[in-house]
Design goal:
It is globular and about 45 Å long. With 236 residues, the chain is an alpha/beta fold. It has a single domain (2-234), classed as Rossmann fold (3-Layer(aba) Sandwich), CATH 3.40.50.1360. It is built from seven helices and ten strands. The chain binds 2-amino-2-deoxy-6-O-phosphono-alpha-D-glucopyranose. 2-amino-2-deoxy-6-O-phosphono-alpha-D-glucopyranose is lined by residues 35-39, 66-67, 132-134, 140-141, 161, 165.
Length: 236
């Protein structure tokens, strides 16, 4: 695992964008595993800026997102599909028909979760998976648990996650209680992983995740077992 520390969020965003840009130079038809949340917003801004300057090309990219809230359709401003459209997909030359986000309106989470994993396999797997991390150590929406859940599935969100994500909604009551998330096995199959996080609170979570034993109570700890993980953490 390679851990890079930066002073500011802006530096983190540029470094993360550098890694994605390099990936697309090396393999223009990469399958990118993408993430939402506040952490990657700066990185997406840098990528959009580079696209406008002709420095990065998304025309051959396929993307698969980590997760989606159950009950929100893609037009809902807090859905992760909407987030991706407005922060990246509508602003670059990616083919929208090759951007995939789990279906928040699923009526059969188990079936659709397995289909999502099969779809990723059929694309040849994820070349580079971007991750953030929650304050309870979740990645995607894989919450602390007694076991690691391997496949894409519907997860019930922890009260602490609902509280943390309430800042994007008008109240905590409006935050969906469940989400469809790539499983930890789906994430771990990615060829490369890039995790970004900011601030002391996240640094503490990551210290716990990476210094102790691999433990499903801190889902991010599973990344210790992946052969190619880069973590960028900024002080602020
Ligand atoms: C959500 C997302 C995660 C994300 C986490 C941290 O719960 N499902 O993928 O990593 O929030 O978000 P933030 O970057 O806003 O702190």
């Amino acid at each position: 695992m390679r851990i890079i520390e930066t002073k500011t969020y802006e530096e983190l965003s540029v470094l993360a964008a550098d890694i994605l840009t390099e990936q697309l130079k090396r393999k223009p038809d990469s399958v990118l595993g993408l993430a939402t949340g506040s952490s990657p917003i700066g990185m997406y801004e840098v990528l959009v800026d580079r696209y406008q300057k002709g420095e990065v090309d998304f025309s051959r990219v396929t993307s698969v997102n980590l997760d989606e809230y159950i009950g929100l359709n893609g037009d809902h401003p807090q859905s992760y599909r909407y987030f991706m459209d407005t922060h990246l997909f509508n602003l670059v030359n990616i083919d929208k028909s090759r951007t995939f986000v789990p279906n928040g309106l699923t009526t059969d989470g188990e079936r659709d979760g397995l289909l999502y994993d099969e779809h990723i396999e059929s694309l040849g797997g994820i070349d580079l998976q971007l991750l953030g991390v929650g304050y309870d150590g979740h990645i995607g929406f894989n919450e602390p648990s007694d076991t690691f859940v391997v496949h894409t599935h519907v997860e019930t969100l922890d009260p602490s996650t609902i509280e943390a994500n309430a800042r994007f909604f008008s109240s905590a009551d409006e935050v969906p209680k469940q989400a469809m998330t790539m499983g930890l096995g789906s994430i771990m199959k990615a060829k490369k992983i890039l995790l970004i996080a900011s601030g002391e609170k996240k640094a503490k979570v990551l210290r716990e995740a990476f210094s102790g034993k691999v433990n499903p109570r801190i889902p991010a700890s599973v990344l210790q077992l992946h052969p190619d993980v880069t973590v960028i953490i900024s002080e602020k």
